[in-house]
Description:
The chain is 33% helix and 17% strand. It is extended, with a radius of gyration of 39 Å. The protein starts with 31 loop residues before the first strand and ends with a helix.
Amino acid sequence: MGRxxxxxxxxxxxxxAAAEADPDAPGPSGGTKRAAKGEARRDVRVEVxxxxxxxxxxxxxxxxxxxxxxxxxxxxxEEALEEAFGxxxxxxxxxxxxxxxxxxxxxxxPVVPSDCVLLEYVVVRGDxxxxxxxxxxxxxxxxxxxxxxxAHLVSLRFVTLRVQSLRAFRDAGxxxxxxxxxxxEVMEGAFSACESLLxxxxxxxxxxLMNMMAWLRPEVTTSAAIYGMDGLGVxxxxxxxxxxxxxxxxxxxxxxxEAVKPSINAEQLEVGLPDLVPQLRPYQLRAAHWMVQRExxxxxxxEYVNSAPYCVPIDFIHKNxxxxxxxxxxxxxxxxxxxxxxxxxxxLADEMGLGKTVELLACxxxxxxxxxxxLSISQNKTEMAQIKRQKVERVECVCGAASESSAYKGLWVQxxxxxxxxxxxxxxxxxxxxxxxxxTAEDVASKNEKSDKKPGIRRKKKPRCTIVDTxxxxxxxxxxxxxxxxxxxxxxxxxxxxxxxxxxxxWYSEITRHTRAGSLKVCIYEGARNLDLPTIQKIDMxxxxxxxxxxxxxxxxxxxxxxxxxxxxxxxxFLRFQKRYPVIPTVLTRIHWWRLCLDEAQMVESSxxxxxxxxxxLHAQHRWCVTGTPIQRRLDDLFGLLRFLRTSPFDTYRWWVxxxxxPYEKGDRIAMNYAHNFFREIMxxxxxxxxxxxxxxxxQEECFSWLIFSSIEEYxxxxxxxxxxxxxxxxxxxxRNDDNRKESTSDSNALLNVYLSNDxxxxxxxxxxxxxxxxxxxxVGSSGLCSLQHNPLSMDEILQVLIGKAKIEGEKSxxxx
Length: 817
C-alpha cells in the first residue's frame, strides 16, 4: 500500500530553516534562497555569539587564532572602524554562499568551498539598530571541511569568534587592511552537550568539531599525540607517515605473538606449593607469578598503557587551562576521563601442550581468598512483595497441575505473593488452625466483592468448591527461592572453571592427578535443570559455595540462562501457553566467585550467543580467559575476550574498532605499538619455540625408511596420480579463469595481494590426499578399492579387482567407437 510522504523536519540550528515560496525572500537567518537548476541553494548568514567578548583574556577558552585572507574594505571603512571598534555598535557574522538546501536536513551541515565562507565585520547604526553596514569581509584559509564545520558550530553557539586584531589604512586613497585576526573560542554549550568523552551517541555537530580541530590544531590529531608515544622510541618520521589501508592484507598472527611474548627474564613464583604434585618448569613459574600479580594488582602499568587515546589534552592559547578531546568521536570536556577500572585477571594463552592447567592450579594454591574473609553472606532486607512475580490467581502446583481437577479431593493453598493455588498435600502444608467449613463459595465470593482482599485470605479461583479463610501465611517454594536470591549475595572462595563438555572429565582427572589428595574440594555443577526440589537446590548451593573448584560446561551456561531470567526479570516470559512447572533459578549468578576461568575462551568470542550472555552475568573477583588459540582468523577475535574481562573502554565495540582494530589493520606503527603493549599487560603467551630450552625434552631424532612399491601398488599409485593430476589441473584452470575476469576491474597492486580462499585450498588438497592414501594401501580412503564384504584384500585379490576394472573400462571404450 502506498503512503504519503511528509515533509522532512530540518534541525540545523539558526541556519536550518528554509525560505518560503518567494525565491528572493530572506530566510530566518538572513539568508536568501535561490532555485538553481537541479538543486536548491541559498545564502546563509550566521550571527556570531558575543556573550563572552567582555571577559578578560585569561578567561577565554581560545583554541586557535586565524588570519583571514582576501580581506576587502568598504570605501569609508577606516572611519567606520575608528568609530565602532571596541564598542557595542559592531558585530561579526559568517556568510555561507550557495549552500545546498539538501545539506541542512536532519541536523547536518553541508560542506561548501572555502571561498564561499566569509567573515563579515558589520557596523550597526540607527536608534533601533535596524541598519547594518558592511565594513570588512574576508575568507578563511583552510580546508573546506574545517571551515564548514566552524560555521556549523558557530550557528549552534558551540564556538564563537572574537576579533583579535583589525587594522585599516589608506594606500593611494584606497582603504586596505593590514591584518585581520580572530580568535576561535569554545563556548560552554559545547562542553554541556558532551556527557562524557566516551559517549557513543552520534551527532552531526561532532563531525564538524573533528573537522575544525583537524584544521586548527592538527598536532593533536597525529598518532603520536593520540597514543601518547611521542619520543618513546618511535621515530617521528615513521609515526607521522601516511598509511593506506590494504583491503586484501592478511593479519600477521606470528608477528603479533612475537610482539606480545613475555620476557624470559621475568620474575618467577617463589611461594612453595606443597599441595601441587608436579614440579613447575621455569616458564610455568613465570606464568603463575604473573597471574598472581595480576590478581593482587601489583602489575606496574607501562607508560604506553597509561596514555588514554580518547583523552587528548589541548592547551588553550593562554596556557592557564586546558580541555580534553576525543579525536575518535569529537567529544570535549574540561575534566579528564576517569581512569578505567583495573582488570583483575587476564588472558592465559600459552601454546597448547605447555601446561596451562598446571599454571592455573598453581595460581589457585598461591592466591586463595583470605581466610579472614571466608564465606560471607550479605542480606538486603526487602519486602516479600517487591520481588518480580506475576501476581495472577491461577493453578500452579509443583506436581505439574495447571488447572482444577475433580480427582483431587484434598485441601488447596494459595501463595500470599503470587496468588498461585497449589495442592496442600504436594507442598506439605498443614494449617495451624482447625478447618471449619462454615462458608460456601457463593458467600465468600459475595463477601470479597464488598471488601478488599487482605493478606492471608484464601480464595478459590473458581467458586465450585468450599472456600476456607485462615490467617496463616504461606509462600510457595519458588517465591521463597526468588526472595532468597534477591536478598542474599554469597561471596565464595571457590574458583569456577567453565569448559567444553567433552573435556569436563579430563579437567576433573587432571585436577585429581596434579594435586595432593584432599587438598582441593572439587564439585561439578550440572545445571539448574537437574535440581527439582528446593531442598536439593539448597544442599547443592551449599556444596558449591564451600568448594575450592567448581567445574561446569558451556552447555550448562546456555541452559541456565533461562533460569536466570526468572530471578532477574520476573516470573517468566509471557508465552502463548502457560508452563506447567515452575522454573528453578540458577545458583551460578547468586554466588560471587573468587575466580572465574573460561577454558577454551574462544567460545565467548561472539557477543550474540547465549553462552556469552550468561558468562557476562556471572560475578567474580578475578576473571581469566584460558585458551591456546586466542586469535583464530583476525584481530577482531580478541574483542569477545576483552568484553568478558571488562577491559574498559575496549569492551565497547566502537572504541575497540576505532582505537585498536582499524589503526592496527591499516598499519599505523604507533597504534600497533600501543596495541602490543596493551595486550602485553593483560595476556601471557609463551610458545614452544620461545621456551624450548626449558622443556627438558630429549633431542628429536628423524629416521627415514624408504619403501619400494610392489608392481601392483606401483600400478595403482600411478593410475591414481594421473587421475588426481587431471582433477587438480581442472581446478587450477577454473581459478585462472576467475582471475582473468577480475583482472579487468583490478589494478596491478591488487593482483599481488590475491590469495586463495579456504574453499579453493580445500579443493586442491583433495587430490593430494588421494595420492597420499594410495601410498599406504590401495584400499585406504574413499577413492580406494573396496570389497563387497568390506574386508582387507590381499595383493592377489587387489590384482584381480584391477584386472576386472580394466576389462570394464576397455569394453566401455570399445562401445564408444
